[in-house]
């Protein structure tokens, strides 16, 4: 398990190739030049198109590439985590959940907007809708009293706010997460009724409420590792009488965000016949909300298990993956976890993704990553932070689409990239149909 104290760094891997593939995410600074030349029969989607691309700042390079035209639903997801660079510096990251995606350094974004000296610490999580990030920082208020405090930032990292209620700054310990919309944060902190409780704070009219204890009536002494349901109505977490680290005796519990419905979902004694596990911990809800995944050792090693919320015998996702830790669920239902068995990981935590049946696994982080190891202090999961363009062919037209939730973005086109040449492509939906006869176009998404 080798679970870390969030404030301790890791031993760095000594040799990492930091050359990265080019990231084709459709963020506002990215242009795509559609060549409108399909390699396949008319009407067939998912074929390859030829693109050229450049970045709008300091443009000096345009190079042809090929890109899979149809984007799978799994591409509309991200994970967030803390990891160390080769220098030992702890940094916060986010990463799209498709093979070859390039990690984005969020600490650099925070450094660019922080008004004060200090540090930013993980765990860093993302709200289920992909719009809000929660972490710990000492850089956004003049005085935190010597430590880091609960902090929230929007997906574009144009600002960040250390959470302050009428009682003052709020300190949390370990995992915390914002609900969709970013107006509620659930976190673990020093307890009012126990050694450690779960709390929530609510933002209304720009002001945060005083913390409200969710687990005040729990029979357990430690409550940690909160992970929200997709709709933000309830939270699943570790419950223990020993500590917050998922040690012996830990079980998985849940509670509604209105403070009702506390119940234990799985305990060490609930395992399959003949199995023995000292703990059940580090849970997350399945995408449909009807079950959970979690870590347990009923087969003799740390593995990822699932169980229905209605009970039943837990099942291991894939018995071949041992030393498999700390799962979370992606919006499309896939399971991410920290696996120590990667052939590129040298017995270090790397992010693995597989489906809920334990199949189609791949390593999201590899030896080419710009960090040594993903810290096992909690990994966030949510929808993507910016729209990704999907391109397909239908009835002789080029169909360009993006996730419908990005209502604050608009598609623009230019044939030359010259200043003032960009025009809005007006559409009432998240799909635009382009005529190939119009010739090559550069496309971009802009807020």
The percentage helix is: under 10%
Total domain units? 2
CATH homologous superfamily of the largest domain, by name?
TolB, C-terminal domain
What best-fitting shape do the alpha-carbon axes yield? globular
Quickly count the helices: 1
Main CATH class of the largest domain: Mainly Beta
CATH architecture of the largest domain: 6 Propeller
Mean pLDDT: 83
Distance between the termini: 42 Å
Q: TL;DR?
A:
This protein has 447 residues and is an all-beta fold.
How would you sum up this structure, described in words?
- The chain is an all-beta fold and 447 residues long.
- The chain has two domains: 30-71 and 389-446, no CATH class; 73-382, TolB, C-terminal domain (Neuraminidase), CATH 2.120.10.
- The chain contains one helix and 36 strands.
- It has a six-stranded antiparallel sheet with strand order 3-2-1-36-33-34, with no helix packed on it.
- Strand 20 (251-256) and strand 21 form a beta hairpin.
- The model is unreliable at 5-72 (pLDDT under 50).
